[in-house]
Amino acid sequence: MLVRLSWWPELYFKVRKILGMVEGEQSEGYLVDTQNTSVYLVDCVSLCGDTSGATEEKVQVAFTQAQQYHPCVLLLKDIEVLGRDRDRQGEDARVIATLRQLLLDRDPSLSHPVLVIGTTCKPQDVPTDVQTAFLHEVKIEAPSEEQRRSMLSMLTASLPLGKEVSLSKLARRTAGFVLGDFCALLSHSSRAACTRIQALSFPGGLSEEAERDFCTAGFPVLEEDFGVALDQLHDAHSQAVGAPKIPSVSWQDVGGLQEVKKEILDTIQLPLEHPELLSLGLCRSGLLLYGPPGTGKTLLAKAVATTCAMTFLSVKGPELINMYVGQSEENVRNVFARARAAAPCIIFFDELDSLAPSRGRSGDSGGVMDRVVSQLLAELDGLHSTREVFVIGATNRPDLLDPALLRPGRFDKLVYVGINEDRESQLQVLSAVTRKFKLDPSVNLTTILEKCPAQLTGADIYALCSDAMMCAVKRKVEWMEEGLDTESSALILTMEDFLQAAARLQPSVSEQELLRYRLIQQKFAAC
Ligand SMILES: Nc1ncnc2c1ncn2[C@@H]1O[C@H](COP(=O)(O)OP(=O)(O)OP(=O)(O)O)[C@@H](O)[C@H]1O
């Protein structure tokens, strides 16, 4: 693939300067330039032999071959794999020495040298002797919105796009995406377009040959196809250690919790809207939501991200813990790096207590958790220089957290998210959850709540509604079997569905647990 160097201006000017091209010229360039410069691409994995000698020989051959094409760029992909022994733990001194020598020894008689560019996504794994043999080090950050737009416009230049497709909008929705992600986005969108057209025009399916002809003829990719592809990619990403994504939870989806909403918005929205306040250096970047499970902590954080048009990176504490030495700390570092790349961003740490328990008490022999907590503290302290990344932590057990986490400048704002104990707040939640349902006119939400236990979390009310929905679905299926209803008619929930569900509803937080949470709340309110 051609890589447009203007996306990475620093790299662009260095390459042009070294290749002897006019310095400071403003036109855009490609890695494969028009001035008779070739790129000789070598995947370093293919250079790894069974023995040090074999690897050394392959490396030498690669350099000799590149020399034949000069002036050229020798692009060594994933250079960190060279100079590692076979189990990738220790270093292979022989290969490192050879590579260093090849990098440093250039034929001065050549007017245009072979320019060696090494690429890596793990700079910490590149042996120091190899790293220091390179003259320049260019860190390629995740592309900005403008660069993403420019990438999209180049990659879609030959694609027939629907009129309503806005590349600027797509660039805004793809914070944190890199070039590879855009290539995947395009192939997923084309596939979605193909599936859509086939389903519409050829419901019976196509023969293999007809399908090939159809694909060759081309078809327009619409905004909805990009939407499908983006959802697929975001889902795939979030299977790994979370990927930033702008959620679609509105305040209407959150019932009650007015006070908590206000506290969060004051902490996050105010500094974003009034950056002049930031210059005083008094802004918070961390907020801790605590309270019983299912009270809407995650939902609240998502709603804030949606309202402030921020990307949302959700990470569950245990997901970051890894058995390999140093990997857990690196996972923590990566989360913050991803968030910075997708700024403005909210990092939501769910189950924070499992990621940052009190140090010295976690009981793991290698002190892994202590190191993770220290890394997390360092990253939180570093947030003061990156103004657009906020951290929201959520936990059911704030008493288990390392106290250093709650010091000023870190998670210094604690907000209790409790269960709904009065019918008024329960009604607000029930109205929010049933907002998108089709209800029979006989449904009276207040009467339903009177039949429910006195103390309910948001998740309990959600369970009540999904149970009522199941009753309605069962009834509809029965009616359809009897020929009394059709699949296309809307699913309507009746009062009877809700009453059946209410009779079965068990509160998820017991009286005893509630008492414990109240004690915790009192303890932290007094701090
Ligand atoms: N205030 C609320 N308004 C509407 N729905 C709510 C509310 N609180 C909770 N819910 C519903 O309950 C579900 C679970 O809530 P959520 O995951 O936000 O709770 P949580 O406090 O983060 O739980 P946990 O501590 O177990 O992670 C939500 O998906 C939502 O459907």
From TrEMBL:
Residues annotated as domain AAA+ ATPase: 283-421
What one GO molecular function would you report for this record?
ATP binding
- Whether ATP-binding counts among this entry's keywords is yes
Grouped into one coarse class, the protein's main location is other
Query: What subcellular compartments does it reside in?
Result: Cell projection, Cilium, Photoreceptor outer segment; Cytoplasm, Cytosol; Peroxisome membrane
What Gene Ontology cellular component terms go with this record? cytosol; peroxisomal membrane; photoreceptor outer segment
Query: What exactly does this protein do?
Result: Component of the PEX1-PEX6 AAA ATPase complex, a protein dislocase complex that mediates the ATP-dependent extraction of the PEX5 receptor from peroxisomal membranes, an essential step for PEX5 recycling. Specifically recognizes PEX5 monoubiquitinated at 'Cys-11', and pulls it out of the peroxisome lumen through the PEX2-PEX10-PEX12 retrotranslocation channel. Extraction by the PEX1-PEX6 AAA ATPase complex is accompanied by unfolding of the TPR repeats and release of bound cargo from PEX5.
Task: Give the quaternary structure.
Answer: Interacts with PEX1; forming the PEX1-PEX6 AAA ATPase complex, which is composed of a heterohexamer formed by a trimer of PEX1-PEX6 dimers. Interacts with PEX26; interaction is direct and promotes recruitment to peroxisomal membranes. Interacts with ZFAND6.
Family, per entry: Belongs to the AAA ATPase family.
Per its record, how is this protein called by name?
Answer: Peroxisomal ATPase PEX6
